[in-house]
Amino acid sequence: MTEAPQNQQLPLGSNENVEYDPNVADAEDREAQNRAEAADRRQTGEMKTGGEKQ
């Protein structure tokens, strides 16, 4: 059994440009999109129902 290098650099996904396409999205993609939109609303202070700032 071989061990993985301890200082191996893993790719970061935070700067990737990923486009959401509802035509090819599955249930997990739609759930992730909904979570991302909810997180964006929380970060910008928008309320869920009206899109108004708190």
From TrEMBL:
InterPro entries: YfhD-like (IPR025435). Residues 1-54 are annotated as: Disordered. This is YfhD family protein. Residues 30-54 have a biased composition (Basic and acidic residues). Residues 1-17 have a biased composition (Polar residues). Pfam families: YfhD.
